[in-house]
Amino acid sequence: MEIVVAQDASDLGRQAAEVGAKCIRAALEKQGEAAILVATGASQFETLKHLVEAPGIDWSKVTAFHLDEYIGLDDSHPASFRKYLRERFVDKVPLKTFHYVNGDAADPSAECQRLGDIIGRFHIDVAFIGIGENGHLAFNDPPADFETRNPYLVVDLDEACRRQQLGEGWFPTLEDVPQKAISMSVQQILASDVVVCSVPDSRKAEAVKGAVEGTVSPELPASILQTHRDTHLFLDPPAASQLAQAAQ
């Protein structure tokens, strides 16, 4: 795992986007197309801002998937990840296709199957992800399922995860935060050739320490990134504040 401590959140996003863009361009040059995963949340603001401005990417040859969506939320809700991604990514670059997770599908399990059938036809070149305050990857809250090979699954959101969404201002009260979501699985994320992980803010410092220096465990899902062959972890100083000096 490569660890980069940037000057601040903006610099973090710039550096993460540069690495991700370089990998996308390499995939396009090698195979004429690329497929990527795109995350949401406050951690991705700066990364996506810089990614859509990256030069030399033929976005018309890029297929994208997103990681998760609340069950029961329509795509006009302020907290909808589909809305987030339309406004910050999809409407800003001329993608070949973006495959949304329809959280308000009548049958969430069938939606998981639909998405799984689609992503199963692709090799993922780059995953842009974050780490939650509770150490989650996508919405795989602890204890995460490290074993399932299903690309998407229905998950329960724990209280720490739901409080993070409240604290970031996406919902007016904790009761308004959904208790279930559709999430990309841990193994599907790990199948990506390159992982670009953006993690700003002191709120994430404890999770970052566990992910980097702790034991690989479903109790801290992001720790599984230690096993990935090509992960780049971008932090700002507050997020890196609990790491041992050698890691910084």
Tell me what the structure shows.
The protein is an alpha/beta fold. It is built from 7 helices and 10 strands. The protein has a 7-stranded parallel sheet with strand order 1-10-9-6-2-3-5, covered by helices on one side. Strand 9, helix 7 (205-213) and strand 10 (231-235) form a beta-alpha-beta unit. It has helices at 9-31, 45-51, 81-88, 108-119, 159-167, 186-190, 205-213; strands at 2-5, 34-38, 62-66, 68-70, 97-99, 126-129, 152-156, 180-184, 194-199, 231-235. The chain has a single domain, classed as 3-Layer(aba) Sandwich (Rossmann fold), CATH 3.40.50.1360.
Keyword list:
single chain, 248 residues, alpha/beta, Rossmann fold, seven-stranded parallel beta sheet, three-stranded antiparallel beta sheet, 7 helices, 10 strands, globular
- List the uncertain runs: none
Main beta sheet, described? 7 strands, parallel
The arrangement of helices and strands along the chain is EHEHEEHEHEEHEHEHE
Average pLDDT value? 94
The radius of gyration is: 17 Å
Which structural class do the helices and strands define?
A: alpha/beta
- Count of beta strands: 10
Strand content: 15-25%
Q: Quick one: overall form?
A: globular
The CATH class turns out to be: Alpha Beta
CATH A-level architecture: 3-Layer(aba) Sandwich
